[in-house]
Hints:
Blueprint lengths: L15 H18 L2 H15 L12 H13 L4 H14 L7 H19 L7 H39 L5 H17 L11 H9 L9 H12 L6 H11 L6 H15 L4 H16 L7 H15 L6 H20 L3 H15 L2 H18 L11 H20 L1 H18 L3 H16 L5 H25 L2 H8 L2 H7 L8 H6 L1 E3 L2 E3 L1 H7 L3 H11 L3 E2 L4 E2 L2 H7 L3 H8 L4 H7 L1 E3 L10 E3 L2 H4 L9 H8 L2 H4 L2 H37 L1 H4 L8 H24 L6 H44 L12 H21 L6
Helix pairs in contact: 1-6, 2-3, 2-5, 3-4, 4-6, 5-6, 6-14, 10-13, 11-12, 12-14, 12-20, 15-17, 15-20, 16-17, 16-19, 17-18, 18-20, 19-20, 21-22, 22-25, 24-25, 27-30, 32-34
Keywords: Membrane, Transmembrane, Transmembrane helix
InterPro entries: Globin-like_sf, Globin/Proto, Mb-like_M
GO molecular function: heme binding; oxygen binding
Amino acid sequence: MAGNSSSEALVFEADAQVMALTAVGWDAFLERKGSTGAAGQAIFKDIFQSEPMMKELFKKDISVRFMMGVKLLLEAHENRAELGLRAEKLALQHVSVAMSRFHVDVFKLSIVRVVQAELGDAMPAPFSEGIGALLVFMGSVCRSTRQLYKNRFDILSSSWKIVKGGHALDETQVRAMLEDENGEQDSESPASVARPEETNKRGKEAAAPTNEANMSHEARTNRMRLSDIQVPRTYNEMFRFNASVMGFEGKAWMDDVLESFDDMVTNAASPTRLQEECKVLALCLGLQRGGVALKEYRSVMLSCLRALLPKQWNSDYETAWTWLWDTIEKQITQLKGKPRVFSNSLQLFFGRMGEEREMSLSLEIFEGFFSKCAEASEFLNVSNARLLYIFGRIRGIAQEIFRDPRGAVMDISGLGLKHAGFGVREDLILIFVDICLQAMSNYSNDPKVHEALRWTFDLVTQILSRSVLEGSTAVMQAVTANSGKLLRQAVADSSRGSRAKLLTNVQVGVVTISPVAWAIETRALKAAEAMLTDLLTIRADRANYYYGMDVLFDRHPDILHMLCTSAPSLLKPFLDGLVWRSTKVVDRQRRVNYYLRHLLVDKDNRFSQSLPALVSHGDPEIIIHPLSQFCLDLLWTRLGASTFFFTKLWFMFTLVIYCIGLQYGILMFDSQGPGRWALISCRIFVYTLSLGQLLVKHSYSDEDTAVERLQKLMSARFNEVERMMKALTEQSARELNSQLRLSTASEELGSDMLQPQLSVPEEFGQLFDSREESEDQHLPEITRDVFV
């Protein structure tokens, strides 16, 4: 990032031999632990056990990133300038943390304890000295970086919240600005010049208190004009207004910058995230046909900020925002023209690769990945056809990010959330990407292709790793482990009002995932039950009650359908959570509240599909649940009974007419008497209106429903398989008997010439061949897609 290096005045004083032995001990520790994630978790577990207050500094699991940071510092211990740059980059990512010498000592003691417990006598003697010197240097860089940049980041964060939310100008400032502008316009008009004899009169009128009744028609008109003018209040509104005034209206590239500007300002304190946003913006700007002049955006940006922050703006604000834009502009300028070159190189590389080479490349990648990281086979325990499909996704993402950068970022973010749900660690992604690049570089000798592959996969890795890190919340980790205890610990420190959102929404950018739905989908039933119990528990403080029912149904209106299809065992705990029973007993009775609004109507006040889902589920224990019974009884007494009665009135009426027309004795005893016309009329009524209605109804209705047709089809299929299996069994038994007889005969003859073979019916083989083809066709849809 632009700016003076905070590590220039800091000198890393440690012997080179000591640091070399420290690096050897660190590598041995990682090798003994088996993975970077396991080693980092062991260190942080010891830190939290020795100093529980350290948990407040780390709201997310950063064990993998911490281990990678230490590795980067150890690799650069010989080049002190590079070490200072890497330390400053890491310090910028933690500029919000007030790092003290106490924190450094805690990390040092925990690392030495864990490494010594793991290596024992194999730990190098100077390891404690080397790791201590490295951590002290890193702590000093963090403190100096915080002192240098924190004021800038605070200014950017606070001012951006004001201008983004539209709270920069209050009503008084807006009206004063408009009145000043209107006053300047009036002063230039001839009508605004007062005659000398009217000066005293106007002065008296100005001194007197005015009201709406005493205002002139012109004054009231001006007041109405002021109220009708829409003054820009947010940054986006003010930017478009100023751009049109300054003559920059209609430039599409400014809209791309404006769309990314929020993320860049919000993540200004994170160099890695800011670099990622600049790369994505450079891809978007590369798709623009016209020229891009970033200096123009800077002019409009500063004018907007000065207008929206008239009281707060000073030289510190000017310096902070100028520094931020210079950093953004520098990174985008460095990539000018490169996205188009990278896109053409990748298109040429993948276009020349045939189907056979693509298959061999994919198998080479995954074989190398499984050999280097054995635990990856737990996530990718699929067929070769599925692995080829995953490689196709990799190729598609690498090309799509140049055609539609923002859409590709959303797809990668959603993929990262799925990785977090499956418990994939960040270090596994880095290993997989390195193996991909090594394997692909063997299929091309063009350095442009190598550079394009490296740049593209670095960007995809940044987005995917960030999504995994942001999505790997404590709740998602508990879902991955399917542990109710871990989930209760994850939400134990959360406030009453934020627990529901924490359990129903994990967001990365604009992509979200619901831990509740993910737990139900992946059959993590223990974690899902704990989440439903926590959501449907009523809590209260002195001011409010907190109940997660509304949040749950707003996020998942079909939650009952999800439970019926994927987790029927959770239906009873879910329905129990919608019932509140008082602990106070009055006259041997106690109050019970049924929260059934979402079971009866949806958010549009239409009939909800929750009760039909329960009825279709067909579980008697769920139907006789008190809440289900109460809902069904309420529907029947308030709505269903009267509707059912009125719909059966026609049937009862036609039944009476039928009985009258059938029985001669009701209307007459003489078939030739005058009552025969009434008898004929009753029968005509029955045959035309009643019987005719039934004929029309059954003529235009399907003979079988879709479910019944599917059941018949499946039944016929199973009967066919059963018949063929029976035929094969009978044939096998006959041939087995003949085999025994022939083997006896061969023993008597002393010859091995007679060797019977079992034959399979041709239609049976065709049946299973068709089943294998159908399974191969559906394989990519039913297998979990983990890495890409």
